[in-house]
Each structure stands twice: as structure tokens, then as C-alpha cells.
Amino acid sequence: MTLKGFLQVFGIIAVLMTLIPLIAADFWWIRIFDYLHIQLTLLTLTAIAAYFIRFDIKRVEDYVFMVVLLGCFFFQVIKIYPYFPHDNYEVGEVSEENFTNKFSLYAANVLQKNKNPKKLIADIKKQNPDVLLFTETNTRWKEDLSVITDTYPYKIEVPLDNTYGMLFYSRLKLKKPRISYLVDDSIPSIHSVLELRSGKDIMFHAIHPTPPMPQHNPSSTARDAEMMKIAFMAKDSRLPVVVAGDFNDVAWSATTALFQNVGGLLNTRVGRGFYNSFDATSSIMRWSLDHIFVTEEFRVADFKLGSDIDSDHFPIYIELNLEPDKAEEQKPKPPTKEELKDAREQIRNLEEKAKEELKKKN
């Protein structure tokens, strides 16, 4: 193969990787390409630069090929541009000094097999958050963290050995706390009203859906359905809403966009940076899987990644202030009929798959 032929194959791969995620299917090998968007953008830029080496100004085919590559590159940049640090925040900065409405949240996927809790405990002590959310936690993790979590008077604990255990601790009073199994009897989610120091109430949802990976789930159906169920909860809530956890999905995917639009939620990352929380063990293959979404009543005082805790995820730390008087300034558009239909369809897809599996068993 000639150098030019190699560069053409390289460019074609970049084009295909751009087009594959546009396929409306929930197979894991399709949805996995959503994750790689940052890397794909850099790959396409490399393909463009490399192809100039053998670009022939007399060949129409070269112009066509270059236009296709440039089109892919600009499409990719547009998708991830909101997550560059450009100060055009989706959730604005704190604008008042009423800190009785302010609280801090620390969320971490601890990696169940991680046997070194000391780094996590040290990071929690440094941040001193009001609310703690841990995922991938079993009974050992519950006991290891008790030296710090015992100082939190309110708790919801669901330790499990299947990497979907969840622990939730709060200095803020919990009202009507509950554990739900929205899509599977082994995948919990946590829901509770939190009473702020001012006495005002907010609604908190914590989730950790399964990723679309062959060793977890060969399709994204369960993940997508759980996200849509939470979106409808947020949409119907009379209280300001916070949704946090390891979503096993990136912010720029079609599923997360639909989740946001249906739930009337805002992404605290937009305008602040990528804050890639996974994979903490790699310097190249990183993307944002851990998220904090809020309704328009909130403002951000601080947002950052935590320290290395020997997990494959970095923790997320955020300080939020409830400012309902300024909610109209960042109120999202209501979901369209088509978006609501698509979200309900994703929930129905899971129900239909469950019925098919039940028939097979019987």
C-alpha cells in the first residue's frame, strides 16, 4: 500500500467513526463510539494534517476527500465545544451571598476492588462536603469509610457485591428517603428530599446505570431507560432537582441530551471544561462519565475534580447555591412532543425486552 493509500484508509476510519454513533441503535459496539468523541476529534485533525502531505491540487478526488474530512472535524468540534472552558455557562455562577442556601456535594465511584480507602478519606477531609455519594460500594467499603461517614447524621446505604452498591451520607436532613430499582432488581438508585440550612427543600436523585459493554450489558437499553425515568421524575418535580452519579454516558451523547431536555435539566460542566472523570488510570482515553445535573434554580460556586483515590474514576466536588429568584435567567426550553415520545419509547423498549426474556424463561 502506498503512503497516500494508507492516509486515505486512515481518513476513512475517522469518517466511519464519526458516522457510526448516528445510527439509532442501542448495541454496545455502536454506543461505545459516543465515548470516544474527544479522541475522535483529535484523530480526524491528524488525518487532515497527514493527508496534506500527499494532497494533489489537480485531483478532484482529493478535494472531495478533504471536504469530507473537514466536515467530520467541524461536526465533532461542534458537539464538544460546549465543554471547553469559555465561561458561557449553562449553570451560572453564584450571584448572591445567601449561603444558607448553599451546600457542597462530593461524588465518587470508588472502584469496588480498590482496597485503599485512605486516599478517598483524605480527599473527603480536605473538601469537607455536606453530602457524600459513593458508587461501586460493597460492605467492605461501607465499613472502611465509617471513620468519616459516622460524622454524617443522615444516611442511605445499599452495599452490594455486584459493583452497583451505593452509599449516601448527608449533614442536611433527609425527608422521604427511598431506594428504587428502576430497571433491574440489582441496580439501585437513591432518591430523597434534602432540607437546606435555610429550611428550603430540594429533590436529590442518585443513579449508576449499567454501561453498554459486553461484560455488563450488550445494549444501552437499560441505561437509557433508567435515565429517561429519572428525567420524567425531574420534569414532574415541584422542587428544585439535583441528579448526580456515574451515568456511564458522556455529556454529548444523544441519550444524555434527551435526558436533559425531557427533565428540564442543566449541565454544570458546560462552559467550565471537560473535567474528564474516567479513566483515571489513562492519560489518553479519558471522558466524562460522572455528572451533576440541576434545574434552573441553582448556581455554581465551585466545580472541580477530586484527587487520585486509586480508582478508575476521579471524584467530583461541587458547591451549589439555590437562587430561585434568578431561575428565569437560565430556564431551559420545555421538551418537544417528539422528545417526550422518544423518551417514552426508550422506556417501552426496556419493558418489551423484559417481556421477551420472561417468555424465553417460561
Determine the CATH topology of the largest domain: Deoxyribonuclease I, Chain A
The unreliable regions are none
Dominant shape: globular
Lateral arrangement of strands in the main beta sheet? 3-4-2-1-12-11
**Helical/strand content category:** alpha+beta
**Average predicted local confidence, pLDDT:** 90
Sheet with the most strands?
6 strands, mixed
Helical coverage, percent range: 25-40%
Structure annotation, total helices:
10
Radius of gyration computed on alpha carbons: 22 Å
Name of the CATH first level of the largest domain: Alpha Beta
Span between N and C termini? Answer: 55 Å
What's the number of extended β-strand segments?
Answer: 12
Order of helices and strands: HHHHEHEHHEEEEEHEHEEEEH
When the domains are counted, the total is 2
Q: What oligomeric assembly is this protein in?
A: single chain
Describe this protein's structure:
This protein has 362 residues and is α+β, with helices and mostly antiparallel strands. 36% of the residues lie in helices and 20% in strands. β7 (201-207), α8 and β8 (241-246) form a beta-alpha-beta unit. α3 packs antiparallel against α4 and α9 crosses α10. It starts with a helix and ends with a helix. The relative contact order is 0.14.
Give a short summary of the structure.
With 362 residues, this protein is an alpha+beta fold. It is built from 10 helices and 12 strands. The strands form 2 sheets. Strands 3-4-2-1-12-11 form a 6-stranded mixed β-sheet, with no helix packed on it. It has a 6-stranded mixed β-sheet with strand order 5-6-7-8-10-9, covered by helices on one side.
